[in-house]
Amino acid sequence: MKVQIFTDGACSGNPGPGGYGAILRAMGKEKEISGGEAQTTNNRMELRGVIEALKALKYPCEVDVTTDSKYVCDGVNWARGWKERGWKKSDGNPAANSDLWEELLTLCSIHKVSFSWVKGHDSHPENERCDRLAVAAANLYKS
Known about the structure:
The chain is α/β, with parallel strands linked by helices. The chain has a single domain, classed as 2-Layer Sandwich (Nucleotidyltransferase, domain 5). The chain has four helices and five strands. It has helices at residues 42-55, 70-84, 98-110, 125-139; strands at residues 2-11, 16-26, 29-40, 62-67, 112-117. A five-stranded mixed sheet has the order 3-2-1-4-5. Helix 1 (42-55) runs parallel beside helix 3 and helix 2 (70-84) crosses helix 3. The N and C termini lie far apart (42 Å).
């Protein structure tokens, strides 16, 4: 089955309260998911949005993930190398968010996943919806 996933992450402060939002679309149906954390970063929420959307799939699928995160789109390719080097970047420094990259790579081994980048806050309807979901989730964690 082919699935479209749209995701976004948000953070109020970086680090600070954060949230993610995702839309899953398949066979003419849509599902929205969102969540957040009290103390996190924007990059972690961008990753968490993709991870949680992929975890929502009940069996292996062909998935196109659309995100405004270059970190996710580019990083998924870099992460394979980081993993081979024991979660070290090519310069020897530790790779950030290795726990989430590990989880994402595992999910990408279950599903056939491609990543597409869209410019954020540029009137892309699904990206705007995901942003609203992510901001609303982040706001739940503000004091």
